[in-house]
């Protein structure tokens, strides 16, 4: 007696459907647990990490909770002895700078300090801190009593948090570019006593976990100079030979000196950003595993 293959296949369908329904019910329960429990556990973990990162930006002085801790950093280089600097940092501000410069091709030594009534805000640190605080506000808007209804809702929150963290990290890893005329006319040049001479420019910036000081020495190009004058564009670090025009005078960069030092708490902060971004992505990956089972639902 021959079996009807079509009939045999049809008889298996209810069994497959029942198994599929059980699997679906188990997945549904796991996903509800993810939305109800695990998402909030991750949000709490993120908040703890980012609160620690935010605290790094505003470390209080020991015994003086209302006053930020002052830290001194010595900037130097094993290959450069023309420039040495001691910078005092308090949170996002440089409150004091002491710079010694040996002028190239002469024995002249120049010494500059911030005027006592001046301090320089490091915009990169200020911006990074603001982005961290915005990420914390996003996380605190969904407390433990909040019930996430879909995976898409979780993903939307994670994307918003990751955007703020990426922006915070980028502010520390990508210093702003400036043209030489912008540098020459910046407020930083008016902060020193004695005033900077017209043939010296300085710039401070953060690069990753390092506080950097760049000193440019210039010379004036004479009107009858045979050099092919070409204005340099915007850059974080300009090279010798870069040219610019200011107040009807043409200048060329003759020497560039860059010194730096590591700021340990900035390194900590970058690690916190990396860990937080990984946690966000891991939660999104878990959501996507479930969404592949229910393509018809808005996960």
Description:
The chain contains 5 helices and 12 strands. The longest helix has 53 residues, at 5-57. A hairpin with a 2-residue loop joins strand 1 (60-61) and strand 2. Helix 2 (123-140) packs antiparallel against helix 3 and helix 3 packs antiparallel against helix 5 (264-291). The protein is elongated and about 90 Å long. Strands 3, 4, 5, 6, 7 and 8 form a 6-stranded antiparallel β-sheet that branches. Strands 9-10-12-11 form a 4-stranded antiparallel β-sheet. Strands 1-2 form a two-stranded antiparallel ribbon. With 299 residues, it is α+β, with helices and mostly antiparallel strands. Mean pLDDT is 84; it is low at 1-16. 42% of the residues lie in helices and 26% in strands.
Summarize the structure.
By secondary structure, the protein is of the alpha+beta class.
Query: Averaging pLDDT over every residue, what do you get?
Result: 84
Give the structural class. Answer: alpha+beta
Please give the largest β-sheet: 6 strands, antiparallel
The run of helices and strands is HEEEEEEEHHHEEEEEH
The portion of residues forming beta strands comes to 25-35%
Poorly predicted runs: 1-16
Instruction: Give the helix tally.
Output: 5
**Percentage of residues assigned to helices:** 40-55%
Distance between the termini: 50 Å
Keywords, separated by commas or semicolons:
299 residues; alpha+beta; four-stranded antiparallel beta sheet; disordered N terminus
């Amino acid at each position: 007696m021959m079996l009807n293959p079509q009939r045999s296949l049809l008889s298996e369908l209810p069994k497959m459907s029942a198994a599929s329904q059980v699997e679906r019910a188990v997945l549904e329960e796991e996903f509800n647990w993810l939305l109800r429990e695990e998402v909030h556990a991750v949000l709490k973990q993120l908040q703890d990490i980012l609160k620690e990162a935010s605290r790094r930006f505003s470390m209080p002085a020991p015994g003086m909770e209302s006053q930020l801790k002052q830290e001194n950093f010595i900037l130097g280089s094993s290959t450069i002895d023309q420039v040495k600097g001691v910078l005092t940092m308090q949170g996002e501000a440089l409150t004091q700078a002491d710079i010694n410069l040996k002028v190239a091709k002469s024995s002249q030594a120049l010494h500059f300090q911030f005027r006592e009534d001046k301090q320089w805000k490091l915009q990169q640190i200020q911006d990074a801190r603001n982005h961290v605080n915005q990420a914390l506000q996003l996380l605190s808007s969904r407390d433990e009593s909040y019930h996430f209804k879909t995976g898409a809702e979780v993903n939307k929150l994670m994307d918003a948090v990751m955007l703020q963290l990426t922006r915070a990290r980028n502010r520390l890893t990508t210093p702003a570019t400036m043209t030489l005329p912008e540098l020459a006319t910046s407020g930083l040049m008016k902060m020193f006593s004695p005033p900077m001479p017209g043939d010296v420019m300085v710039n401070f910036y953060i690069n990753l976990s390092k506080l950097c000081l760049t000193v440019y020495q210039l010379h004036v190009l004479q009107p009858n100079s045979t050099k092919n004058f070409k204005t340099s564009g915007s850059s974080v670090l300009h090279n010798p030979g870069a040219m610019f025009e200011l107040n009807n005078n043409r200048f060329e960069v003759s020497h560039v000196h860059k010194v730096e030092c590591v700021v340990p708490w900035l390194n900590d902060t970058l690690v916190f950003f990396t860990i937080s971004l990984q946690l966000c992505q891991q939660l999104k990956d878990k959501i996507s595993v479930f969404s592949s089972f229910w393509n018809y639902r808005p996960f």
